[in-house]
Amino acid sequence: MGRLNKTTKILLILLGISFLVFAGIHMIEEKEIYELSKAMVEEGDRYYQKKEYKKAKTFYDRALKRYNDLVVLKIIKRSEIKELENKLQTDPILQKVAKGYIYYNGKWVNEKELEALMREKRRLKQKIDVYLKTAKFFGSIEDIENNITIYQNALKEINNSPFKDDKDFYEIKKKLIGKIIFLSEEAAKKYTQKGNLKKAGKYYELVLSYREDPDIKEKLFNIYLQLYNDYLETGDYTKALSSILKAKNLFPERNDILPKIDYVLSKIDFEEIQKEQIHDPYVYYTLAKKSYSRFDIPEAQDFVEKALKLDPQFIPALKLYGRILIDTGEIAKAEKVVNKLLDKAPDDIDVIILAGDLKLKKGDLEGAVSYYEKAESRSEVKDKLFKVYKKLGQAYASKGDIHKAKTYLLKAVNIKDDPVVYKSLGDIFFKSGDYKSAEKYYLQAVKIDKNLKKEVSKKLGQIYLTFAENLKKQKKYKQAITYYKKAVSYLGSRPEIIKNIAFCYEKSGDLKTALSYYKKIKSAKLKEKEAKLYLSLGEKEFRKGSYFSAVKYFKKAVSIDRNLINKVKDKLTTSYIKIGDRYMKQGNYEKSLSYYLKAVDTDKTLQEKLKGKIFTAYLKLGEKAFSSGRYKTAFNYLKKAEKIKKDNKKLVYYLGEIYLKEQNYKKALEYYEYYLNNYGGSPEILKKISLIYAKLGNLRKAKEYAEKLIKAGKFLDVANFITGAYYYHFEKNPDNALRYFLKSENFGYRNGELYYYIGRIYYDKSNYLRSIAYLTEAIKNGYKKEKVYYLRALAYLKLKDYRKAINDLSMVVKYNPDNAKAYYLRGKLYYEHGDYVKGEYKKAIEDLEKAAAMGIKEAVTLLDKVRTKK
After folding, report:
1. Taking the complete model, does pTM exceed 0.70, yes or no?
2. What is the pLDDT of residue 415?
3. Is residue 790 within 8 Å of residue 809, measured between CB atoms?
4. For residue 596, which of 542, 584, 587, 636 has the smallest C-alpha distance?
5. Which of 184, 227, 323, 333 has most Cβ atoms within 10 angstroms of its Cβ?
6. Are strands 107-109 and 102-104 parallel, antiparallel or unpaired?
7. For residue 83, how many other CB atoms are within 10 A of its CB?
8. Distance between CA atoms of 199 and 251, rounded to whole angstroms?
9. Of 819, 832, 763, 746, which Cα lies nearest the Cα of 786?
10. Which residues pair with 701 in a beta bridge?
11. 141-159 and 111-134 helices cross at what angle (nearest 10)?
């Protein structure tokens, strides 16, 4: 029994241990089941949040089934299990799932409805595929625009369908939008290149409707600006306004647009703007400002109220509205607007000033000052502060508080130069008798605004008169003159002021200026005094040797009193002669002559005395004109000199030169021979006489002077040429002529006529090569005459150089189209030696016909022969 009990105990212990082990293992299993169930619930919650309700219910059901497999933990976790059961039984969405409904595209559908939707979705996909296949690979702008329309239509189909939020269409929509954006940018670029900014802008607008892009926004902004400028150029101001408002909508914060809006609004009639139904408060605010500036207050009020209707918080419009209401005396309304402004913008200087103006309008000066003082405390906006100081100064001035008025007005001008403020300061100081300060501020006012001169002229004039009178009393005449003159600039030339100026000049010893001022006063008594003063001044200048001034004063004295002419005649003529002498030394012969002639005009007895000076002046003027190539002027001067004195070497020489240049060879010869006989023969004169005789055809006389040159060894080139010409033409001795011609050439004479004569002599001697060489030199040296080319053609003909002969004969008929012999010879050469391929046979006929028509018999005979051969 004892052993049994022991065994039983052991068994019981083992059984207990086994139960504990089993229980432990079961608890571990239950914990795993619980953890798994809990994870399923969490997964179900995730699907529920993602609106995948069917999956969510599946996980909830599985979790509940596993919860029901628990034993111990089922009791412990009862509240969690109960919560899940309640959710499955009461949640309306899960109930729908339990009944077989499916949540699709944001709504619950049964299987039948789902099938219909799926069919519709499939058809939509097919339709979209058709759209995508319709789009072509683009090359032209038209292709791009067509593709954009296709993609837009496809996108519209999706957005108008029940599947616009379907995830299956999300990527398609994204792709379509991407294509529309890309193609729109391409279209915009192409239209920009073509210069069609309107179309480019349309497509950039389309890009921005799908995507916020700063670069595109900037490009579109620039297009709007360009369109604005283009419309301005064409005068289409309404479209310009539309474009600039679009630019403003893109970048409302850019203030540089506002002046452009202002400008275009100034070009459009108000009625036209109102027709456009514009919804931009700034436009109506601007129109209100313009109307206000034209003092059309009712219209300004109408426009500003329209601006505030569009944007009741538009501060600039509120400020203008407040200003208008104050101007029109609608104080109650103005107070509401000003109070609103003070609430919205309490630190706005304009608002504070407006509040002050309202107080002033109501007659509350202290209230106005309190607002202006608030504005005065602001330091960041100097221009606004200036306005406040100005208003404070004016307000205190109106109250009669001169001290404060001065204080604030001075503060105002320390900030900004303002003519009105300076004038106000001038008025204050003028009233207080501080003329120096008053002058200072009046001048500052006029300096800035010339229009104020009329307002302050009288006061400034009075100030300067006061200064001048005080200085005159102190015998400070020069200083007094300064202020009298300033008084004149503001008060005009009053006789009493002019008289005082003249008096002060006289007292200070400046008689000249005193005289000029006395002249301004119309008085018979002053005329005699004036003439004597001029006479005194003239004598004073004469003694100093200032002859120009002396002449001036003597003439003025005589112009006033003709009886003074005998008194001043000697000094006046002496002055004329002295001035003439000075100009002569300076080489200004024209002026010198004019003064000598003035002296003679004043006193005829001086004509003989000044004859030499006048002759010299005429001669010098003639020389000067000759050297500058003004031969006609030179001739006139020299002929006048000749009337005074004929026997002058230079005079004779220059007159001879002028006649020679005019090709008046007989007169030139007359002067040159006179020169030779009276002043001796220079080689140059001999050469000119020789050449003139040659020109006149008197080769004997020409040779006579040429031989003198040869004997003297001067101008041997010309002398030998003239001698050769004598032998050739007069003696008919070509050998002697050739000898002299060759000497002329050896001495360096390069003359076309010389080469012609040598060439002619060599031709006569049958030396055709030399003849051609010299005739060619004649042409090179400018002797291009018909006879030269004809002779050279004959020489070429002798040498059987027919082509060159033809060329020279062509030059002959060019110089003389009536040379029958040249036509005959050239026609004969064309016939006998011409190039028939080049048509020279025809040329032969043409030349021979011309020669025959001119009476060349040989041409008639040869022409018949040529035509027979043809």
Report:
1. no
2. 82
3. yes
4. 584
5. 184
6. antiparallel
7. 12
8. 21
9. 819
10. none
11. 170
pLDDT per residue as tens digits for the range 706-740:
999 999 899 999 999 999 999 999 889 999 999 99
Q: Concatenated DSSP letters for 99-139?
A: TT-EEETTEEE-HHHHHHHHHHHHHHHHHHHHHHHHPPPP-
Number of other CB atoms surrounding residue 14 within 10 Å = 10
User: Mean pLDDT across the chain, nearest whole number?
Assistant: 85
> Nearest to residue 817, comparing CAs of 830, 805, 826?
826
786: left (phi over 0), alpha (psi -120 to 50) or beta: alpha
Average pLDDT over residues 496-507: 85
Q: Given phi > 0 = left and psi -120 to 50 = alpha, else beta, which region is 663?
A: left
**CA distances (Å), 819 to each of 1, 215, 740, 813, 846, in order?**
185, 86, 32, 6, 14
For the record, the structure tokens of 181 come out as: 């954006």
Token representation of residue 395: 């307000």
Secondary structure (DSSP) of 379-415: -S-HHHHHHHHHHHHHHHHHHT-HHHHHHHHHHHHHH
Closest CA to 474 of 506, 499, 504: 504
> What's the rounded Cα separation, in Å, for the pair 710 and 713?
5
- Cβ atoms of 53 and 94 closer than 8 Å: yes
Neighbours of 5 (CB within 10 A): 9
Those residues with Cβ within 8 angstroms of residue 524's Cβ, 6 or more apart along the chain or in another chain? none
Report residue 629: phi and psi, to 5°.
Answer: 85, 10
Distance, CA of 510 to CA of 769 (rounded, Å): 93
Instruction: For the chain, report the end-to-end CA distance as a whole number of angstroms.
Output: 179
φ, ψ (nearest 5 deg) of residue 103: -90, 110
- Exposed, middle or buried: residue 242 (CB in 10 Å: 0-12, 13-18, 19+)? middle
Residues 278 and 281: their CA atoms lie apart, in Å, by: 8
CB neighbour list of residue 475: distance below 8 Å, 6 or more residues apart: 507
How crowded is the C-beta side of 230, counted as CA atoms within 13 Å? Answer: 13
Separation CA 33–CA 155 (nearest Å): 50
From residue 4, alpha-carbon distances to 1, 7, 10, 13, 19 in Å are 5, 5, 10, 14, 22
Q: Measured between alpha carbons, how far is residue 467 from residues 24, 181, 474, 483 in Å?
A: 126, 82, 11, 6
* 458-486 pLDDT per residue, tens: 888 899 899 898 998 999 989 999 988 98
Is the distance from CB of 136 to CB of 143 less than 8 angstroms?
yes
3-state secondary structure of 690: helix
Separation of alpha carbons 329 and 331, rounded Å: 5
Residues 658/636, Cβ–Cβ less than 8 Å: no
CA-to-CA dists, residue 34 to 21, 44, 47, 195, angstroms:
20, 15, 20, 75
Q: How far is residue 300's CA from residue 305's CA, in Å, rounded to a whole number?
A: 9
Q: Which amino acid is at 51?
A: K
- Cβ burial of 97 (10 Å; 0-12, 13-18, 19+) is buried
Amino acid letter, 620: K
Residue whose structure tokens are 């000119």 = 688
Say if residues 115 and 102 touch (Cβ distance below 8 Å): no
For the record, the structure tokens of 231 come out as 């419309």
